[in-house]
């Protein structure tokens, strides 16, 4: 069975340096056997992915933005744990999508992150989830996702 790091390599994904906090919080907290990762925004190699679904972005662009959030979540996990194999399960993801009032495909956007978790972690990547829309997100980003992980 492949390790999460091997799966990332198979998917041609290189984890970025984890983002630093932009306000009065920490990027992650370990409490007991759980890792809580603060919201990770749609930030990729070309910078912030900004916009609003249903106005300036398509569903596919939103899914790609959510996938970036997932990559950033995994980067924070790696920083916290040193080894992604310590993740026993993704417990819950909370997805936030900047969207026009008429845009209702919020769950499909967050699938971009959920699918990545399953691709990298297999059954351990299956999780409970929230997916909500809002009129605006920090720095004008399109998507933000936070996560709770059970760890060894």
Number of helices: 3
CATH superfamily: RutC-like
CATH architecture: 2-Layer Sandwich
CATH class: Alpha Beta
Which structural class fits the helix and strand makeup? Answer: alpha+beta
- What letter string, H or E per element, gives the SSE order? HEEEEHEHEE
Number of domains: 1
Q: Which strand order does the major sheet show?
A: 1-2-7-5-6
Uncertain runs are: none
CATH fold name = 60s Ribosomal Protein L30, Chain: A
**Distance N to C terminus:** 18 Å
Number of strands: 7
Explain the layout of strands and helices:
Blueprint: H1 4-10, E1 28-31, E2 34-41, E3 43-44, E4 47-48, H2 59-81, E5 87-98, H3 106-121, E6 128-134, E7 143-151
Parallel strand pairs: 5-6
Antiparallel strand pairs: 1-2, 2-7, 3-4, 5-7
Helix pairs in contact: 2-3
Protein name: RidA family protein
Organism: Ponticaulis profundi
Domain Endoribonuclease L-PSP/chorismate mutase-like: 7-140
Short descriptors:
7 strands; two-stranded antiparallel sheet; five-stranded mixed sheet; 60s Ribosomal Protein L30, Chain: A; 152 residues; alpha+beta
Report what the structure shows:
The chain has 152 residues and is of the alpha+beta class. Helix 2 (59-81) crosses helix 3 (106-121). It has a 5-stranded mixed beta sheet with strand order 1-2-7-5-6. Strands 3-4 form a two-stranded antiparallel sheet. A hairpin with a 2-residue loop joins strand 3 and strand 4 (47-48). The model has no long low-confidence stretch (mean pLDDT 97). The chain has helices at 4-10, 59-81, 106-121, and strands spanning 28-31, 34-41, 43-44, 47-48, 87-98, 128-134, 143-151. The protein has one domain (37-150): RutC-like (60s Ribosomal Protein L30, Chain: A, 2-Layer Sandwich), CATH 3.30.1330.40. The chain contains 3 helices and 7 strands. It comes from Ponticaulis profundi.
């Amino acid at each position: 069975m492949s390790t999460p790091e091997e799966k990332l390599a198979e998917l041609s994904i290189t984890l970025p340096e984890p983002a630093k906090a932009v306000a009065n919080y920490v990027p992650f907290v370990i409490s007991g056997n759980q890792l809580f990762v603060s919201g990770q925004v749609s930030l990729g190699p070309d910078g912030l992915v900004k916009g609003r679904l249903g106005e300036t972005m398509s569903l596919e662009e939103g899914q790609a933005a959510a996938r970036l959030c997932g990559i950033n979540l995994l980067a924070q996990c790696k920083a916290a744990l040193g080894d992604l194999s310590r993740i026993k399960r993704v417990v819950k993801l909370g997805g936030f999508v900047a969207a026009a009032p008429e845009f209702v495909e919020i769950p499909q956007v967050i699938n971009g992150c959920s699918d990545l978790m399953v691709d990298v972690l297999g059954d351990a990547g299956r999780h409970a989830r929230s997916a909500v829309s809002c009129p605006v997100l920090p720095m004008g980003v399109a998507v933000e996702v936070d996560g709770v992980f059970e760890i060894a």
